[in-house]
Design goal:
By secondary structure, the chain is α/β, with parallel strands linked by helices. The protein is built from six helices and 13 strands. The strands form three sheets. It has a nine-stranded mixed beta sheet, sandwiched between helices. Strands 2-5 form a two-stranded antiparallel ribbon. A two-stranded antiparallel sheet has the order 3-4. Helix 2 packs across helix 5 and helix 3 crosses helix 4.
Amino acid sequence: MKIAVAVKIAASLDDGATVRDGAVDPADLEWDVNEWDLYAVETALQLKEAAGEGEVVLVSVGGEQVSEGLLSCLAMGADRAIQVEVGDEAGALDSVAVARMLAAVIGPESPDIVLSGVQSSDFASAATGTALAAVLGLARVAVVRAVRLDDDALEVDRELEGGLVQRLRVDLPVALTVQTGIAEPRYATLRSIRQAARKRRDTIAPEQLGFGEPASLAAARIGPMAEPPVRASAEMLEGSASDVADAIASIVRARVS
């Protein structure tokens, strides 16, 4: 059984982050494996163990921050990793562009299962896994909270609204986006980290996959950021609920007219 796992190395802001030239200062960013994707890696490892054989292949799109994150996932037990190297232009890629690059790598691998986290901790669009399944032409189950091997198929539990759970049996190949809590990610020991350094890690340029400039792939554009302008202090509204409601309505009409 071959399982491909899409892994994102997500950015988080440290305290006191600043915006300069329309973007967050890179010095204020901290990088780590996206939490949801850690659960996807653990799920892949458990499925491989349940099957008794197989391979777990990590695939990621990003710049220099990706290498260390992939190493930590290899230390968990994944077999090899592939990185699409897009340098500093990674931030210009939207979910569809990332999915297209991931699919260009994952497709030729012909995996039985494609896993990704439900969403990323930085953009939280919950779109990349779904777009990846669409580009690959695979059936997809989203927000999976449990998965079990069932002969040549999978039995999965997925979250629905209102706390409901739907149980499905899906044939392979299939793409799943997994929820946090599906399994506790295993701890990477110092020994496993040393062993991971000897595992195969390939780097591919977008041009090798038939893509042009990474930034040109994005369907959506992220505009410049800036700190919000300082406005007048808040106005406290007093009176009955009806009076306050009328006052709010008047303010809204004045602002949007």
